[in-house]
């Protein structure tokens, strides 16, 4: 195995851990978005995509005769749990969650772009194809979040105004 193959395997393990982290974060968000049905529906859809993406990355690792890293996966889930729980303690959780999701999607896009290039470099066209497919899904999610940021912001502010008016009475 070449140094490039070793690097690709390590990065695929990182990508699998990243998907596990994303799942934990998304599921934590989803459970608290009842006031934002469109956002909740898109998060639910992306949870299903992310579960499939984790399986696809696992398949790449298996094809390359290696496995995921239990330690990296556990660390990523723990990090995501902390992020998810921290949102409970802020009044603007939906805004902070949207910002974190948008940022995380761009990290995933960059990761899969680099993984696709590394897979191409070592001649692993199937892993390259998988990484490009996942990257397109991450780009679609980031675009959706960007396109709906104004709507989520307005909904949040309108709810805050209503709550503030109720408190004054």
Structural account:
- The chain is mainly α.
- The chain has one domain: Ferritin, core subunit, four-helix bundle (Ferritin, Up-down Bundle), CATH 1.20.1260.10.
- Helices cover 87% and strands 0% of the residues.
- The protein has helices at 3-30, 37-63, 70-87, 93-122, 125-168.
- Helix 2 (37-63) packs antiparallel against helix 5.
- The chain is elongated.
- InterPro entries: DUF892_YciF-like, Ferritin-like, Ferritin-like_SF.
What secondary-structure arrangement, pairings included, does this model have?
Blueprint: H1 3-30, H2 37-63, H3 70-87, H4 93-122, H5 125-168
In one word, what is the shape?
Answer: elongated
- In the residues, how many domains can be counted? 1
Question: Can you tell me the CATH topology?
Answer: Ferritin
User: What's the order of the H and E elements?
Assistant: HHHHH
Total helical segments: 5
End-to-end gap: 71 Å
Please, what is the average pLDDT?
87
Name the beta content range.
under 5%
Proper CATH architecture? Up-down Bundle
| CATH class annotation | Mainly Alpha
The count of DSSP E runs of length 2 or more, i.e. the number of strands, is 0
> What structural category arises from helix and sheet content?
mainly alpha
Q: Describe the biggest sheet?
A: none
- Point out poorly predicted stretches: none
* Proportion of residues in helical segments: over 70%
